[in-house]
Amino acid sequence: xxxxxxxxxxxxxxxxxxxxxxxxxxxxxxxxxxxxxxxxxxxxxxxxxxxxxxxxxxxxxxxxxxxxxxxxxxxxxxxxxxxxxxxxxxxxxxxxxxxxxxxxxxxxxxxxxxxxxxxxxxxxxxxxxxxxxxxxxxxxxxxxxxxxxxxxxxxxxxxxxxxxxxxxxxxxxxxxxxxxxxxxxxxxxxxxxxxxxxxxxxxxxxxxxxxxxxxxxxxxxxxxxx
Amino acid sequence: xxxxxxxxxxxxxxxxxxxxxxxxxxxxxxxxxxxxxxxxxxxxxxxxxxxxxxxxxxxxxxxxxxxxxxxxxxxxxxxxxxxxxxxxxxxxxxxxxxxxxxxxxxxxxxxxxxxxxxxxxxxxxxxxxxxxxxxxxxxxxxxxxxxxxxxxxxxxxxxxxxxxxxxxxxxxxxxxxxxxxxxxxxxxxxxxxxxxxxxxxxxxxxxxxxxxxxxxxxxxxxxxxxxxxxxxxxxxxxxxxxxxxxxxxxxxxxxxx
Lengths: 226, 257
Hints:
The complex is a heterodimer of chains A (about 230) and B (about 260).
Chain A: E1 2-13, E2 16-27, E3 31-35, H1 42-50, E4 57-62, E5 65-66, H2 71-76, E6 78-81, H3 93-103, H4 108-121, H5 137-149, E7 155-159, H6 167-182, E8 186-191, H7 194-200, E9 203-208, E10 211-217, H8 218-225
Parallel strand pairs in A: 3-8, 3-9, 6-7, 7-8
Antiparallel strand pairs in A: 1-2, 1-4, 4-5, 9-10
Helix pairs in contact in A: 3-4
Chain B: H1 8-23, H2 25-28, H3 30-47, H4 59-90, H5 93-97, H6 103-132, H7 140-164, H8 168-184, H9 199-202, H10 207-220, H11 227-251
């Protein structure tokens, strides 16, 4: 079964065609990397999947739920870790997760245990009462991962999650993401780093100038580079 | 899968915005009350003592409903506009846009929290006024209806402004150049019957006049304009801003590329 299905996706901005008929299928349980340079169309594709951007044409569905027609069901399936920090920097870490769980229809009594587990898993529990502005860069990245996971999504999308993160934090995040994937979460990751895609992913798509250039398994793609 | 009618996101939004304005109560609740009390002391007590009755009531009792309404209007507008604009500015609005929350719930949640802030400010002004002058209410239901409608109207207007504005300068345009002057010229301090022509006719183009006049009628039973006429104008404007907010959210106006 496909977790993510994209067919002939086109996004046109005035004077720019960001996506030129992209088609892509990502299977349930896969760890999939979207590799490409800046401006290739990675973020636009993710934004269309998550409702942050309107498509020009084409179809996008998550577990057979159309992201426009069935947006309530589709959005409950997805957790997004965007490229830039986009939380209320003056809000406490715990409250950011508490409110976010509410937006995803999680009843108040279920939120506490979920938040405690995620924050402990990511090493942020001691910071639960700190305003987000007081966290280090790496901790802010982890907070965005925690926020994306609070409603237990079936698909996790990470847009360059380790950009600007130190080596140790990056390793911790990789280990955590691998475990999440082993537990059944489908993961789509965009990155510039070949090493990141190589370490984590089963299949890789290479995107450039709004077009998918190649989709193959990690091993096959690595053979090509030798 | 839960049904589309889940109200959990709505209650979460109301709780979030209410907690935020209560946390900064010295900035969100006290300043509008203080402004109104200063007006009461200066215009009602100091200068008002030299003015004879207006429409059969003391000058202080005449201006009190307008001052209360001023607090309600500005609080509702500032609450919703800044709550939403700060989310846009920090991009935390994306938390809502990627969630399954319906647009009407974002509008309703922001509006209800803003109305609550307006009511608290209104009650505060009323409580302080009671310490300064005896107050009798002519018709509590008319008073409540205008309070609810006007706080709702300006909360919607605040949401529309926040969605439209690109920066803090644009955010202040409506409050500085439209709402504040129209409120002051909307009959807070005078009856339009006291104005010479053509000003008394020109004043009737000011929508805030009908809000203050209707509210004053509920308070002291005195009005320049038939109360049903005022109601019709307030309801029409509330509906207009509600439809505008829904359209802006649905089309993703300055929210989605």
